[in-house]
Amino acid sequence: MDFLLQHFSDITSVPENLKQELLKRVQLHTFKRNEVIQRADRVCKRTYLVKQGLLRIYFNKDDKIITDGFAAENEWMTSAYSFMRVVPDQYEIAAIELTQAYSLSLEDLMYLFEHFHEMERFGRIVMSMQFIKQSERLNSIRFTTPKEKYEHFCNTYKYILGRVPLGMIASYLGITQETLSRVRAGS
Amino acid sequence: MDFLLQHFSDITSVPENLKQELLKRVQLHTFKRNEVIQRADRVCKRTYLVKQGLLRIYFNKDDKIITDGFAAENEWMTSAYSFMRVVPDQYEIAAIELTQAYSLSLEDLMYLFEHFHEMERFGRIVMSMQFIKQSERLNSIRFTTPKEKYEHFCNTYKYILGRVPLGMIASYLGITQETLSRVRAGS
DNA sequence: CCCCACATTTGATTCAAATCAAATAATTAG
DNA sequence: CTAATTATTTGATTTGAATCAAATGTGGGG
Prior knowledge:
The structure is a homodimer.
Chain A: H1 2-9, H2 16-25, E1 27-31, E2 36-38, E3 42-43, E4 46-52, E5 54-61, E6 64-72, E7 76-77, H3 80-85, E8 88-89, E9 92-95, E10 99-105, H4 106-115, H5 117-143, H6 146-157, H7 166-173, H8 177-185
Antiparallel strand pairs in A: 1-10, 2-9, 3-8, 4-7, 4-10, 5-6, 5-9
Helix pairs in contact in A: 4-5, 7-8
The structure holds a DNA duplex.
Protein name (chains A, B): cAMP-binding domain of CRP or a regulatory subunit of cAMP-dependent protein kinases
InterPro entries (chains A, B): cNMP-bd_dom_sf, RmlC-like_jellyroll
Organism (chains A, B): Pedobacter westerhofensis
């Protein structure tokens, strides 16, 4: 449980009673390699914090699987729109490798936001960080060549490289597998 | 001032003392048509809430001006990375038409976050909404044809259409002016 | 009110990456 | 350990939008 509280403490101060409430509400899961955590067409009920391992979010577009993101240690993963708005969506989440993750339900999260200023701050800071990350990704997708996309990925997410098939990285970067292969070959 | 408090109240409850502090710290600006509010290579010191009019954020890429976003009534505008991290960046912000906007400095914002749970909640909710909006934009840029991009823009931002030159919309959508023109001609 | 800078359209051509196709390499489940 | 599946590379071709080029339209400052 130290991991969980450490994660929160790294972002903002956590008073003792918030710690208690967090520990009371959080669930710890173990997901097998390739286990599907969240299925398409369902409401995503929980948000996950990866303790160890690697999660992936993806969806089916014209019979191709498009990877939309990864979450490794200390990163949060949920199908954001489905989770926040409590509506089904097309995203699935699965474990790429054996993964341990904590999770919170929307109700518990809301309870904690409601009762703890620090939790609200935590939420604001995490959302801000996600927003900034997503901006960078948007700019990368809009304005860079396949080669630059791959290089940026290598620089930013080298800890993911080698843990996932290249096809997943290609679709995450918004290019085809073939193009990624050629980029890597250096032509 | 009613506008400002209404904007906050629409998102979360605002206790009387927070109202006081908000009113004490907020500035009201009037920007002329085409007036530049934020210059490139500078730290963006404030975040703006548009009361009336239209702001635009853009940057120079290879001698082309790329529009990155708009903010109309009840929308926030800032150069997010620069503002949050207190570093200069390449974005500029200008008024497209005569605009009235409230603004807050980072220090004031932090003060309000620090002292008011409700302000923190407001920040969290606004960041979440921005995140979701940005996700939709990312998907639009990644997966849709120029025609679909334009249709989506018309559906979502029709109140902007007609108030800005088409070139700005084209670069916002990630297509060229020529392509947008052809899409509109319907071919 | 008119002219000029800017905005928009239209046409011809180019090009980068997608698609289509298939061979080769590497995992993994039995 | 080996067959079968999955991943990766490599090659040929297509294609949609960018680029290049230029004509036409238009609105707002003088």
